[in-house]
Amino acid sequence: MSKCRACGTKIRWIQTKNGRYMPVNLENVSVEVGTLEPDTCIVTEGGSVLWGRHYRGGEINGYIVTGRISHFATCPAAGRFRRSG
């Protein structure tokens, strides 16, 4: 476990399918993949990056996947780490 250099939040690093490491929040979240209006991007333990609707229960129209939200999406100082170009 690491801490974000910008905001101090505890994070994990997951290697994505393309070989890069992405900082993610510690909490697991579930998303429904295959919906028309995705609102959440997660990274699975296997390194897949998927978009879906944050699942809070109820009817399912796609399928449920559990993963972690990229810390870039929630860090108040994420702009410090964006690459230009």
What can you tell me about this protein's structure?
- It is a single chain.
- This protein is mainly beta.
- It has one domain.
- It contains no helices and 6 strands.
- Strands 1, 2, 3, 4, 5 and 6 form a 6-stranded antiparallel sheet that branches.
- Strand 2 and strand 3 form a beta hairpin.
- The radius of gyration is 14 Å and the shape is elongated.
- The relative contact order is 0.28.
- The model has no long low-confidence stretch (mean pLDDT 89).
- Give start-end ranges of low-pLDDT stretches: none
Which descriptor suits the 3D outline?
A: elongated
Please tell me the overall pLDDT: 89
Tell me the distance between the termini: 30 Å
Which structural category fits the helices and strands? mainly beta
What level of helicity do the residues show?
under 10%
| DSSP E strands, number | 6
**H/E element sequence:** EEEEEE
Q: Quickly count the domains.
A: 1
Biggest sheet, in brief? 6 strands, antiparallel
Total count of helical runs of at least 4 residues = 0
CA gyration radius, whole angstroms: 14 Å
Percentage beta strand? over 45%
